[in-house]
Design a protein that fits this description.
It is a single chain. The chain has one domain. About 10% of the residues lie in helices and about 40% in strands. The protein has three helices and 16 strands. The strands form three sheets. Strands 1, 5, 6, 7, 8, 11, 12 and 13 form an eight-stranded antiparallel beta sheet that branches. Strands 2-3-4-10-9 form a five-stranded antiparallel beta sheet. It has a three-stranded antiparallel beta sheet with strand order 14-15-16, with no helix packed on it. Strand 11 (about 150-160) and strand 12 (about 165) form a beta hairpin.
Length: about 230
C-alpha cells in the first residue's frame, strides 16, 4: 500500500528522528516449519523502494527474514526499509504501530532498536542480526532470545519521498501464518454478528494512530491501524 508525498515525508522524518534518538496466539513455529511468505502489490510505491515479498523462515534459535524488492534499487542515505515487530500483538503498546522491536536499514547500515516506553534505543543487549542489504533484498535473523516469542505481528515500510507499507493493504501481518482451513470448512456458511466498531486515537508526535476494531464475523476481526498526521 502506498502513502503519498506528505505522509511519506513525515514517515521519513520519523525514521531519521528515531535514528537520531538511537545515538543518544497461533501455534508456535518450529525449526522444521516451512517458510511463511507474504506478498505485496507491485507498482504501488511511488519513488519508495517497492516491496514485493516478505519471507520469514525458522532457523536454529531464530527466524530468518527476507524483505525482497520488486526491482533493484540503491537505498543510499535517503532510502529506508523498516521492519517492526509487535511482540505482544497489542497495537496499544510499543512505538509506531505497536512495535516493541524495530529494524531500520538504509544504504549506510542497519540498526536494531527496542522500545523503552518513551522511544526507541539501540543501547540494549541483543544478538547480532547478521544483516545484509543488496539492491533487491534486506536479510537478517531475529533471535528468539530477543523477540521472546515465536508468534507476533509485524509491519514493513519502505521510505523515500513516498512510502510503501507491506504486506497487503493493511501493512500488518501475523507470524506464523494461520493454518489453512479445509475445503469442507471453507464451504460452511458463517453467521456474522454485528457488534459495531470501536475507535481510539493514540497521539504522539508526529502521528496519531487511529485504531479501529470492527466485529463483523463470528470470530471478530483484528484491529486495523491507520496512520494519520496530527492537525
Amino acid at each position: 500500500m502506498t502513502l503519498g508525498g506528505s505522509i511519506g515525508r513525515v514517515l521519513a522524518a520519523t525514521a531519521i528522528a528515531v535514528l537520531a534518538a538511537l545515538g543518544a496466539g497461533p501455534p508456535a513455529a518450529t525449526h522444521s516449519s516451512p517458510p511463511a511468505v507474504y506478498a505485496d502489490a507491485i507498482g504501488d510505491a511511488g519513488d519508495a523502494p517497492d516491496i514485493a515479498q516478505i519471507t520469514i523462515s525458522p532457523v536454529r534459535g531464530g527466524l530468518a527474514v527476507d524483505v525482497r524488492l520488486a526491482r533493484p534499487m540503491q537505498l543510499g542515505a535517503y532510502g529506508w526499509i523498516l521492519f517492526g515487530v509487535d511482540t505482544d500483538r497489542n497495537p496499544y503498546s510499543g512505538g509506531g504501530r505497536g512495535d516493541e522491536l524495530l529494524v531500520l536499514a538504509n544504504g549506510e547500515g542497519t540498526t536494531f532498536a527496542r522500545w523503552t516506553g518513551s522511544g526507541f534505543t539501540s543501547r540494549f543487549q541483543h544478538h547480532d542480526l547478521g544483516a545484509a542489504l543488496s539492491v533487491t533484498d534486506l536479510t537478517f535473523v531475529l533471535s528468539l532470545a530477543d523477540t521472546g516469542t515465536r508468534s507476533f505481528e509485524f509491519s514493513v515500510a519502505s521510505l523515500r519521498e513516498d512510502a510503501d507499507l507491506a504486506p497487503g493493504r493493511r501493512g500488518v501481518a501475523s507470524y506464523p501464518l494461520p493454518p489453512r482451513r479445509s475445503r469442507r470448512a471453507r464451504g460452511r456458511p458463517t453467521q456474522p454478528r454485528q457488534l459495531g466498531a470501536e475507535r481510539d486515537h493514540r497521539c504522539s508526535q508526529p502521528f496519531c494512530f487511529l485504531v479501529t476494531r470492527t466485529f463483523a464475523q463470528a470470530s471478530g476481526d483484528r484491529p486495523v491501524v491507520h496512520i494519520i498526521t496530527r492537525a
